[in-house]
TrEMBL record:
Signal sequence range: 1-24
Region entry Disordered, spans: 25-59, 363-386
Source organism: Streptomyces lannensis
Ranges for domain Glucose/Sorbosone dehydrogenase: 70-370
One Pfam short name: GSDH
Chain intervals with Basic and acidic residues compositional bias: 376-386
Lineage: Bacteria, Bacillati, Actinomycetota, Actinomycetes, Kitasatosporales
Biased composition (Low complexity): 34-46
Name this protein carries in UniProt: PQQ-dependent sugar dehydrogenase
Domain of life per record: Bacteria
Protein keywords: Signal
Length: 386
């Protein structure tokens, strides 16, 4: 694995910028359906105190279409002052979306993106100190690997020129036509987490020296985070096939969604150092070596990408399944069968992020080469959940 810290020039630019800057669609209720689920023990350090259990059934209402006519949207990052940053997988661009009007402002292109198959410009995340350092992180596929970079976002520059030169934070993640992972997120601990895929090479998932088929945890500078389970390594958990969803609940416990192959997709509660079984196990297993999923789905019902936590539940976007799943939680277990909404209404669903309170931002993914786009695809939806 390879990593490097931020350049002095980038850091100096961030300080200068911080000194100069202050910081229609219709309603569509969904129907519900259940799927099989399994339970697993929770992460170490979980507080075993009494917790609120959400109702067994919930609801979803699409409030409005925030933006339409988007091309291959993938990563989505809400700005604290309003607005959304959106990554275009194939064009390698980042665009700001006004969440009130839908107006699009191009920040710029990310150099080095090599889009092919499932690779390209994937997840994006804002620095925990974004209000002062104005840094945007991105996970991208290059000609040689998958890597994480960060760039200065300068709102004072003209449209199309607002992204600074990318600084590589972490590189060497295996790439492939398939299974590139790609979700990145900063956790409650301020560390950067990344979900990776095994790039079609199954053996990488069980190899703790490989970065493929893992959840990685690192400092914002790309160094192994303090407290990681395998010493001087960014590997946080392993035995994954293709992780594209990361979210924390209100007790700071990490959950991840994972693509299965032919049988079971998974939602997992992540415990540092644990083995999640791939390719030896797919879905629930009786093998005590493996940490089993808290819920599982047939691949035609899910093929999950992004997840978010709201109203006591994990909300999981399904690509092939073309639906939004609700998984109510009690601790690190599912407290009731998962419930499906928006089945087939908007096609493939890629990314879901909290929008504050009981609302979510939800993106479609019908222009990714595997969907059937409508005249206004792709879209960002504002969704109210309970």
């Amino acid at each position: 694995m390879q990593r490097r810290a931020v350049t002095t020039a980038l850091a100096a630019s961030a300080l200068l910028l911080a000194a100069g800057c202050s910081s229609g669609g219709g309603d569509t209720p969904g129907g519900g359906s259940a799927s099989s689920s399994s339970t697993a023990p929770g992460p170490s350090g979980s507080r075993e105190t009494a917790e609120h259990t959400p109702p067994a059934t919930g609801s979803v209402r699409v409030v409005r279409t925030v933006a339409a006519n988007l091309k291959t949207p993938w990563g989505l990052a809400p700005l604290s002052g309003g607005g959304l940053l959106l990554a275009d997988r194939d064009d390698g661009t980042i665009t700001r979306i006004d969440d009130r009007t839908g107006k699009k402002t191009l920040l710029g292109s990310v150099p080095g993106v090599s889009a092919a198959g499932e690779g390209g410009l994937l997840g994006i995340a804002l620095s925990p100190g974004h209000a002062s350092d104005h840094l945007v992180y991105a996970y991208l596929t290059t000609d040689s690997d998958n890597r994480i970079v960060r760039m200065l976002y300068d709102t004072k520059k003209p449209s199309g020129e607002q992204l600074g030169a990318p600084d590589t934070v972490f590189k060497g993640i295996p790439k492939g036509t398939i299974h590139n992972g790609g979700r990145i997120a900063f956790g409650p601990d301020g560390m950067l987490y990344a979900g990776t895929g095994e790039s079609g090479n199954r053996g990488l998932s069980q190899d703790r020296d490989s970065l493929g088929g893992k959840i990685l945890r690192m400092t914002p500078e790309g160094e192994p985070a303090p407290g990681n389970p395998f010493g001087d390594s960014v590997v946080y958990s392993y035995g994954h096939r293709n992780v594209q969803g990361l979210a924390w609940d209100d007790k700071q416990r990490l959950f991840a969604s994972e693509f299965g192959q032919d049988t079971w997709d998974e939602l997992n509660a992540i415990k540092p150092g644990d083995d999640y079984g791939w390719p030896i196990a797919e879905g629930k297993s009786t093998d005590p070596r493996f940490h089993g999923p808290i819920a599982q789905w047939r691949t035609d019902e899910a093929s999950p990408s992004g997840i978010a936590y709201a109203e006591g539940s994990i909300w999981m976007a399904g690509l092939r399944g073309e639906r939004l799943w609700r998984i109510p939680l009690k601790g690190t277990q599912s407290s009731a069968p998962p419930q499906a909404f928006l089945k087939g209404t908007y096609g493939r669903l890629r990314t879901v992020v909290p929008a504050g309170g009981n609302k979510l931002w939800l993106t479609t993914s019908n222009t990714d080469g595997r969907g059937d786009p409508s005249g206004t695809d792709d879209r960002i939806l504002e969704v109210e959940v309970s």
